[in-house]
């Protein structure tokens, strides 16, 4: 069911995703119905319809561990999207603890990665690395594949602290993870992050070369990326 839910997501189209999850929930037995409705709430949050999202979650009475984890996780995401980080942390930590107890590795890593986004800035890198350790130790391939996103977050944390050497190392590791996973669009983003870090470090020739390669690939598939264009302008 978890894989099926992932397949229904199009984060660029949360309204369309919402409708697909509602369609699943309309015919699915429990607990699959509850799982789908938690994703309805998430899709509503991405549309900034926070009250509606909370109402969907309020109507659930989860009887199984996965449903409880998903409810807490999406409650936390709704709160974080509404800039209520302190309140969201409680739900992310609840989700991570229950997921770990139930052996739900992918959800545990997801929850830990969300915890790391809302802790105090001074604690953020340690929290990211805890999430990464869980991902690397997991038996579930879907849980292990969280390493790419977490490494990107680690890179951003280093960059925010002005440590662009540390950021580059993390972004390079994230790129390796993306190449392993095999999603071309997300791999291009990971390549962009490496090139961005190189520019920050003054390695402009290699940064320009990488951005030009991205530009050529995007042209070949009829797509554009303003971030690539912006970097090329900066690189001259």
From TrEMBL:
Q: Give the keywords, sorted.
A: TPR repeat
Q: InterPro entries this protein is in?
A: TPR-like_helical_dom_sf (IPR011990), TPR_rpt (IPR019734)
PROSITE patterns (UniProt xref): TPR
TPR repeat ranges are: 148-181
Key word Kinase present in the record?
no
Highest taxon above the source species: Bacteria
Q: Does the keyword Ribonucleoprotein apply?
A: no
Q: What is this protein called?
A: Tetratricopeptide repeat protein
Which species is this UniProt entry from?
Answer: Nocardioides eburneiflavus
Name the lineage: Bacteria, Bacillati, Actinomycetota, Actinomycetes, Propionibacteriales
């Amino acid at each position: 069911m978890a894989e099926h839910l992932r397949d229904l997501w199009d984060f660029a189209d949360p309204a369309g995703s919402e409708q697909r999850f509602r369609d699943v929930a309309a015919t699915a037995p429990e607990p699959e119905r509850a799982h789908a409705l938690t994703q309805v709430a998430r899709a509503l949050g991405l549309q900034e319809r926070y009250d509606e999202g909370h109402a969907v979650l309020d109507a659930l009475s989860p009887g199984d561990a996965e449903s409880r984890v998903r409810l807490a996780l999406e409650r936390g995401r709704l709160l974080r999207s509404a800039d209520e980080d302190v309140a969201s942390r409680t739900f992310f930590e609840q989700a991570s603890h229950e997921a770990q107890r139930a052996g739900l590795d992918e959800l545990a890593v997801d929850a830990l990665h969300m915890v790391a986004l809302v802790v105090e800035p001074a604690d953020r890198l340690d929290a990211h690395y805890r999430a990464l350790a869980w991902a690397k130790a997991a038996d579930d391939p879907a849980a292990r594949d969280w390493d790419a996103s977490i490494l990107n977050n680690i890179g951003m944390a280093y960059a925010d602290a002005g440590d662009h050497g540390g950021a580059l190392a993390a972004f390079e590791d994230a790129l390796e993870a993306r190449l392993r996973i095999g999603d071309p669009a997300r791999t291009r983003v990971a390549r962009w992050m490496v090139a961005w870090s190189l520019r920050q470090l003054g390695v402009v020739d290699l940064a320009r070369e990488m951005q030009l390669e991205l530009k050529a690939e995007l042209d070949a598939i009829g797509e554009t990326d303003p971030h690539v264009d912006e970097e090329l302008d900066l690189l001259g």
